[in-house]
């Protein structure tokens, strides 16, 4: 009989599927637009130079509040996975990658796609975590500390004896900038924050905390330093940029790096946006010359110099090893609690950085956030639709 005695062919081994949870922005608007999805996929085919990282923690930044409202121009249109920084363990590497290996603990940075458990990205966008650094700390380093370092040292050329005004001094960038100011001798830091945060930011290095909610911070600074300050870090925009410019000493510099005054609620407020831009500072070069002042703008998302980017991260990691900087973690939230984390940031309740945990052990003690599971099945494609 045909086939008698022939060994039956072995069925192909089943490829183990991977499961990854992701926070997907499905549209612009309120917290309900962020949905927790679980995708099941085949192991991704890594392209040359890529690694796959299982993230343990992700950072939450003000840019995500803007992105949720459609106010962050670098974020792809929904549906998209937000998040620009994270930390975790390398699970796979492309054949040509020699400086990363499976099991490495790394910091990972990308323009988006970081709010998920499994992420594929270029190996060059990962950085080895120092010994003793927690995953939460690692996820808090890139965006806040890169922003603060480049503004203070690459742009403003911070030197001993200078004075700096840091708005939102209890926030992620604010605490990073305060710590970095402490690495330079005899720098005076004015920091705006609500009164309940003054003791903490004073301990962190703010020389003169000012309650912006109950006092005129311009008048308070003038009482202490009649000539003003040398550097203003302005994440607010609008009328606050005018105030900051007027506070500058001759040869001083204001660095605009945000427009927090545009964000007044869960959803885009066109009136707030229009008001902020209507009051935006407008000067010509003649006025700048007459005042002997400088205005600069900073946006980390548009930094394309990889040597500068990488060099700055390695400087920051060295400062961490030396004990000169240490991210302050305000709170850690699971993916299911992202609305609570965003609300805490929006209401400016945080002191330091908010972290999102990627593990599946979820707490359900905060019922005001209704999350949704949608199961997506991919066939070998590791990219999240965007």
UniProtKB/TrEMBL annotation:
User: InterPro entries, per this entry?
Assistant: ADH-like_N (IPR013154), ER (IPR020843), GroES-like_sf (IPR011032), NAD(P)-bd_dom_sf (IPR036291), SV-ATPase_mito-regulator (IPR052100)
The record's GO molecular-function terms, alphabetically, read:
oxidoreductase activity
Is Oxidoreductase tagged as a keyword?
yes
Q: What keywords would UniProt list here?
A: Oxidoreductase
Protein name listed in UniProt: Vesicle amine transport 1
Identify the SMART domains for this entry.
PKS_ER (SM00829)
Pfam families associated with the record: ADH_N, ADH_zinc_N_2
- A biological process term (GO) from this entry: negative regulation of mitochondrial fusion
Provide GO CC annotations from the record. mitochondrial outer membrane
